[in-house]
User: What shape does this take?
Amino acid sequence: MTSPTIIRRSRWKHVAVISGLLLTATLAHAKGPTIQVDERTVDAGNVRQGDQATITFKIKNTGDQDLTIFQVSASCGCTVPKNLTDEQKRVEPGETLELEATFDSRGRRGVQRKEITVVSNDPIEPRLQLYLTAKIVTLFEINVDGRDSRGLRFGKLRPGQTVEKDVDVLPTEPGKSLEIGSITLHHPSLTYTTEPLSKDNRRGFRVILSASPDAVIGSVTTPLIVEAKSGEESGSSSLTISGEIIGELGFRPPTIKQWQPALPGTKLRPVTVSSHSGTPFEIYGADAGPTLSTTITPNDKRNRYTVTMEVKPDAAPGPFGHLLKIRTNSTEQPLLIIPVFANVRPLVDVYPPMILFDGTSTHRTIRLEANKGDPLPVGKIHCDLPGITAKIDNSRHSKRDQSVKYLQVKADASIPKGRLNGVIKVEVGVRGMQTLEIPVEIRID
Assistant: This one.
């Protein structure tokens, strides 16, 4: 049985060892420079919008060697730490450095929190994170439908119509009055009027926005800049106005993009043209370029039309971009233009799409496939280059899949040297295509 005295001695021995390790760690940490700051977050308080505020962080070296500041940077261009001299960058043990940072509140709103990073030779915390906070107060506020806002989206507006949203400009502090200095609206399609406003013991004004009678149809994005005065103080603020001026007629979609390859005869996404007021109108015609044919279908009331586009049977394979032009009897919108992007798939796929003879091989195999799954009858085959012949490989013919054929192309000893280009013409019995042309290139030095 173990003696109680031996147990006590063993426990005290363990305590002594742990205490020694902790003391060693503490002494090790005390060696070298140690950066310490009284407050990592300094609040600049309320800052009037447009003013600057300067705060100070007190950084102390509590180590036993010189603390060297390598770099001081801020997370935002609105916050600028004061440049340190070479002498200030070296903080001796026990000394304190007062680090100043200036915050510029121009263009800022609400509560702000900016990060300042101090890089030093402290082995424990080489990157010290400090924070500057502030609350931006303005001389006045711009409210949209009763809420402080930076933007107003009016949706869709006809020329001459008024925006159905209240834009109220009121002093921030109760009991104050506001006078208009100037209002700037840089867009010819929008106009405004003002009227006095008294609300919540504050006197200001309301801005009423409208689309001008001659407004240009299309999207609108523009700032509304307000300058106002309260007593001896003056200030400015802005609101981003955005929306769309619409005409008598509307159409959807505004752009057609169909990148999935479409075979001749395929119909693209239709375009719907309608009257916003429900008034009947006429579409005189629609044209979508040489690749597409168009069909116009009105509804019973003739206040809504569907324009359908179809890939023509003789459309050239590959991607294309055209403009769908729709002619109407609207004096406001006599011509509607809609960009159309699509990709025509060939009636017969050829792989590889080109044949190259460079002297390394005399045989090539080309796979032909009718894309609609119909049988692929092949007639005469001719190549306009000397020394090259081509024929269908019937040994690879599948009775199950009549839409696939394999073309064997062979170059004999009479093939000329040099660089020549030609084509292999294959007669095919596919509806909409009579001859298939496969490019051939000879490149033998």
About this structure: Residues 4-30 form the longest helix (27 residues).
